Amino acid sequence: MRGDELMTTSTDNAELPAQTSQRAFEIFSQELDANRKRTDRRFAWLMFGQWLAGIFIALVWSPKAWEGLEHHTHIHVWSAIFLGGIISFFPIILAWRQPGQPFTRHVVAIGQMLTSALLIHLSGGRLETHFHIFGSLAFIAFYQDWRVLLSATAVVALDHAVRGAYWPQSVFGILESSPWRWIEHAAWVLFEDAFLLLAIKQSLRSMLGLAERQAALEGVNVLVERTVTERTEELRREIAERRRAERQLGLEYAVSRIVAESSSFQQTAQKVLSLVGESLGQEAGLLWMVDNREGVLRCAETWRADKNQKDGICAASEGLMLKKGADIPGRVWANGEPVWMPDIRLDKNFQRAEGARRAGVQGTFAFPIVGQNGISGVVEFFSRSSDEPEAGWLRACSEIGAELGRSFESLRVQEHLRQTQKMETVGKMAGGIAHEFNSIMTAIIGQSDMLLEDLPAGGDLRYRAGEIGKAASRAAVLTRQLLAYGRKQILRPETLNLNNVIEGMADSLRHIIGSEAELSFVPSPSLKMVHADAGQIEQVILNIAMNAADAMPNGGKFTIETANLELDPNYASAVPDLKPGRYVMVALSDTGSGMTDEVKARAFEPFFTTKDIGKGTGLGLSTCHGIVKQSGGHISVYSELARGTTVKIYLPQAVNAHTSATAFTAPLPLPRGTETILMVEDDPALHEMNADLLRRLGYKVLTATNGVEALKITHQEGVGHIDLLFTDIVMPQMSGTELSERTRRLHPQSKILFTTAYTEKAVSSQGVLDPNIDLLQKPFSPAVLARKIRSVLDTD
User: Fold this and answer.
1) 44-57, pLDDT tens digit by residue?
2) Count of H helices and E strands in the chain?
3) Which range has highest mean pLDDT (49-58, 352-361, 424-433, 522-531)?
4) Cα 796 from Cα 580, distance rounded (Å)
5) H or E segment to which residue 183 belongs
6) CB 117 within 8 A of CB 159
7) What is the Cα–Cα distance from 612 to 589, expressed in whole angstroms?
8) Strand partners, 382
9) Are 340 and 370 in contact (CB under 8 A)?
């Protein structure tokens, strides 16, 4: 039975998986083929031995079997030599040259049976040699091929039939033979064939069973090996993933620790760039921050693995401004997602190709810094390889970006808080000394002015008195600047059109910036109103103009622009104390020397100046800052070295605004009067000076040092009508507000004029910040006092 037929009819084969069944057939076929090749070679040796045996029989046995012949060397010797050689030659050659082939098997089987026939003939048909046929058939059964066995049987049958009929002595050893002898021999051959066929079938079944078991074992081995391999790979991946996760968590923890321990933006940025860059094997790292005012990304910090490299990607990035969508950081800013690029040389929009070439970098990846109000920056790294960062690292970098976003927002708030506390400290200091200092300046200014009136013109004493007054006036201005910085100055706000305010200052501004500089004013034609103190806004503009003039010693251009703006929450969120809403913007730009980042960071600090000693107080921009903040607005500075500076002022638009006009009058002689004035002043120096001045101007003056004493005077008989109560606000025992209310009960027609040297907080606690009251802020000159009193008395 053939092997493939046996495989097809096997009962066990249907239960095997297709792959295992196919493998079993392969094993079975290989073993069967190997067995047939071995059998071919065995038959080659056997037939060679049979050929020699035939020659021996021809020499020894044939003369005895064939008696009566004449030659001692029997003719059968030559038959054995030549006929046996012919019968054996071809099967032997095929068995060695083409073992295992079906044709070889049939040739060998035929040759073997012809050899048996030759041996029987040489023995004279002896019965013993017939057993060679049965042995040969048994050997042929080793092929395990029933077709080869049938070929051999057919040769035996044909040989016995032909020789039995024509030459019975050569096959049966008798001279005459009947057909029954052939039938008898054929029956024995068929009997053996039946058993041999059963043996072949059983042998093939056994071989197939062994092949199936071997295939099953191999399948189990393959499955086990595959399972072990897969599990090993899973374990390897798990271990690698765990190690990667540990590194990522370690990196995130290290970043969190840096964020917690760092006290400044620069320190945090530099340490994080160094940590992440070294952990990922990068060559350079850059931190880009969003400038909401200009709508660009600016390179804020850089890191280099090679500290000695000065000219490369970092140098090419410093000072570069990127719009949203431009270059790699701009794309991250626009998309909000990490970006990886294996080769930046292939990016036509990459603006720093030359710097990258000098640095020898090729691959890059960047991720956003995300805070509560959106993307505030981008972190970018460069490497010499084009390997893609692992997905886990990109996720870790995104977490780092979120951590940095929270950190930078916290640092910005802390920095603003420190700045606010610093300003509050200076403001409290200014407020603490304001009363005494203003009172002293009022006395000095007043006494010097009255001394000037008493001294003859041209004298040395008059000159010195004038210098005293000038020094006192400068000190008074310094006091007002300190109060403005600390936002403690009392403002008299009104509804203003800033275009009108700026146009009214044109001559003063041209004088300040000098004849060599150009003044340009670009007003908005539909500018909205603001609610502010006109004098204080003028002071802000003048201070900025003076700084611009100092920055343009050889001339330049000073431009003032106005515009209506609406700040959205995203823009306003970049400045902690700026609220979204509608503003009027005043931009003051010069083309001067500009500022460094260090100077710009300290621009609003009090007493900070870059001017030579004696040429600046350091209160110019700090005063502007205080006035604008006190007016509910915001002020910012943008500057670049050798390109100039722009100061932008944002003031809230006034609601239901009506423009008020301010009348300017030329100086007039000191007005006089004869009315009765009750003056209440707790400062002895000011008490005497004010009383003396008012008497000189012709007024009848009643004096008191506090409110209780003043009330006693109002109740005295013979005092008559009191035309004006001129009182300090903040006094011991009784405030000026209470005194005015109680005086009005006895003298309803009396006018009230308040004065104070205290700050806004102290005055507001007395309830006199009503814009309709008359208030004279200390320090003041005799001329200011005279005109103010006359103005109040003449008011209906």
Assistant:
1) 888 777 777 767 76
2) 27, 18
3) 522-531
4) 43
5) helix 179-261
6) yes
7) 23
8) 284, 364
9) no
| CA–CA dist 359, 361 (Å, integer) | 6
DSSP 346: G
Q: Do 440 and 416 contact (CB within 8 A), yes or no?
A: no
Residue 468 CB partners (closer than 8 Å, separation 6+): 444, 448
Residues 635/650, Cβ–Cβ less than 8 Å: yes
pTM for the whole structure? 0.44
C-alpha–C-alpha distance, residues 718 and 95, integer Å: 162
Beta pairing class for 700-704 and 676-680: parallel
State mean pLDDT over 182-193: 75
Q: What is the DSSP string of 355-419?
A: HHHHHT--EEEEEEEEETTEEEEEEEEEESS-PPPPHHHHHHHHHHHHHHHHHHHHHHHHHHHHH
| Residues forming a β-bridge with 715 | none
Residue 78 vs residues 48, 81, 494, 595: alpha-carbon distances, Å: 16, 5, 149, 126
For 375, the token pair is 């993307």
Q: What are phi and psi of 304, to 5 degrees?
A: -125, 135
Pairing of strands 775-777, 751-756: parallel
Write down the pLDDT at residue 668: 53
3-state secondary structure 681-745: CCCHHHHHHHHHHHHHCCCEEEEECCHHHHHHHHHCCCCCCCCEEEEECCCCCCCHHHHHHHHHH
Q: What are the φ and ψ backbone dihedral angles of 414, each rounded to 5 degrees? A: -65, -40
574 in Cβ contact with 650 (< 8 Å): no
Rounded to whole angstroms, the Cα distance separating 48 from 96 reads 12
> For 138-163, what is the mean pLDDT?
79
> Of 688, 666, 680, whose CA–CA distance to 783 is shortest?
666
Cα→Cα distances 277→280, 646, 777, Å = 5, 36, 61
Kindly list the distances between the CA atom of residue 26 and the CA atoms of 21, 23, 217, 569, in Å, as whole numbers in the listed order.
9, 5, 14, 77
Residues 630 and 491 sit within 8 Å (Cβ to Cβ): yes
Angle between helices 127-140 and 146-166 (to 10 degrees): 160
Q: Which two tokens stand for residue 670?
A: 């000191």
Eight-state DSSP code of residue 437: H
Is-contact 377 368, C-beta < 8 A? yes
Q: How many CB atoms lie within 10 A of CB 422?
A: 13
SS3 586: strand
